[in-house]
Structures are given as C-alpha cells and as structure tokens.
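Figure 2 data, in text form.
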Amino acid sequence: MSELRWHPMLREWVVTATHRQARTFLPPKDYCPLCPTQPGGFPTEVERPTYEIVTFDNKFPSLQPNPPDPDVESTELWPVEPARGVCEVVLYTPDHDSTLAERSVDEIEKLVAVWTDRYAELGKRDFINYVFIFENKGAIIGVTIPHPHGQIYSYPFTPPLIQRELDSSLEHKQRTGRCLMCDILAEEERDGRRIVAQNDSFTAVVPFYARLPYEVHVVPKQHRQCLLELSEGEARDLAAILKVVMQKYDNLWNRSMPYMMVMHQRPTDGGDYSHYHFHLEFYPPYRTPDKLKYMAGTEFGAGVYVNDTLAEEKAAELRASEPVTEAPNG
C-alpha cells in the first residue's frame, strides 16, 4: 500500500508506504543485491560482472509512476492522493567495501554527470515537480544495504523544507534585489571563520546557522539554480570539493563518517525560480567521536534545533582535517 496523506496542521504531504517493511535489511556481503552479478553467482540488481555507475528503479519505492489507488477515501479535512512519483537507486561503484569519499575525482565527476542526467530526465515527466538527490551513509543513519549508493526521489510536489527556502529566497529578492544565498555566501567569505574548503567554483562552509555540530553546506560561487546550469569546469570542481569534504569528515576521527548528503535545486514544474541558489548540505550525526547528536523533543516536537557546539570551532576542526591529496588527473 502506498498513498499520500495530507497533514492539515503542518500543510504538508506524508507518504504512507507499508510495502517498504519488506525491503532488504543488512544482507551479508556475499549476498549483496547491489554488487555485480558474478558468473554462476547469486543474481543481483546488476546482471553483469562489473560496472561503473548504475541507476535503476527502487524495488521498494515510496513513490511509483503507476501507484495503486489509496486504501482510504479522501475527506475535506484529510485529502488522500495516490503516491505518484519515481524512486531510483544510484550505485557509485562495484566495490562493496568502498565509500564515495574513496572514489577518485574523475569517478565523482562521472557521478555528477549521472546526477545531472537523472535530474533532467526525471524532471521532464509531467507528474514530477521536484527531483531530490541524496545519500544516506552508515548504519547509524538507518542504511539497510551498506554497498555505496545514493537515491533519487522524484515528487509530485515541492517538499516543504525546499518550499520554505524558495519562499525566503523570493522574499529576499523582492526586498533587496539580490539572491539570498549569494548574500549568505558573501557574508561567510567576509567572515572566513566558518569556511571549511574552497576551490574556483565552490565554497564548503559550516554555516552561521548550523543546526548540527558538523553540518557543512557546499555552495556554488556563481548563481546557479541547478546542476544543469553548471559549466564543465564547475562540474569538475563540484566533484573535487565533495571529495575534499568527505575526506575531511573521514580524517576527523580516522574513521568513515556517517552522514546524510542532500541536494537542493530548483523545482522542475516549469516555474520561475531565478531567485533560488543550488547547494548541497551534509548532516553527520555525531557531535563527538563517541556521542551522537540526537534529534529529540525540541527538534522533532517544536522544530527548534539546539546545537551544543560553535560553528566556528567545528569549521576549524574540519579545516585542520587534511584530506589525502590526489594527482590532477584523478
């Protein structure tokens, strides 16, 4: 069963997808469904002995192109809609024991190209209004298959958090004539204390308003609304700075850092979003090497985050966590 249920108090959709209870949960390495299928071996999602990057439809999707009818009827108070959309899986590498941080800049650049292609293709569908690209990394985040991969959820609506960013960006544009994220980035660069890494095209920063101790935002220096607007050089620089940020996380405590990585782009519904500025956000769950930053009463119940660290200090720690250097050709 899969359907959209309207939350009248928060004015947002909730996806009900009961079939996802049956999805694969922490399979043994020799039965990983995301590894390449070896001759005579256990069949997997990729029926070939190796691959570079692969995308395919999620077998347990929250949203479906042809969803079933809802189990319950709509009322005036509680509208219900079919959970129409597309959910895809993106496999980064055939190497089960690797992570995205360990891939070369060349490989990550290819992934950026795949992300760009999927954003364009999925966004063309008339029932898709928003294409959301993300990665959940680590069992502590809730990842059920450890093989390095990301996901793409294509929604029939703009998600509420993105909508709040769009509204704030539009209000700022109308009031000042400027882009809100451009102004934020300029202020961060003037201050300098929270910058983690930079290259010609992107800045990585623990933002002034970070809600989590090691939250990092990756922002293009030029005003871009989505991946489609990146030049070839900017796409390469995005790959390079993503690798730097992920390696800094891993080198911070000399272990692979779990995180959620999310991409915020303009909606694909054909509207004018020239006021919006594309960026990525990283949410690691730890506040110290052995303590998690739990989302508890004030965060979930009131929507007010409490960050018990200083963004300036956490940014300094990440700056000092030097990534492994890589040859220019990747």
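Caption note: The chain is about 25% helix and 20% strand.
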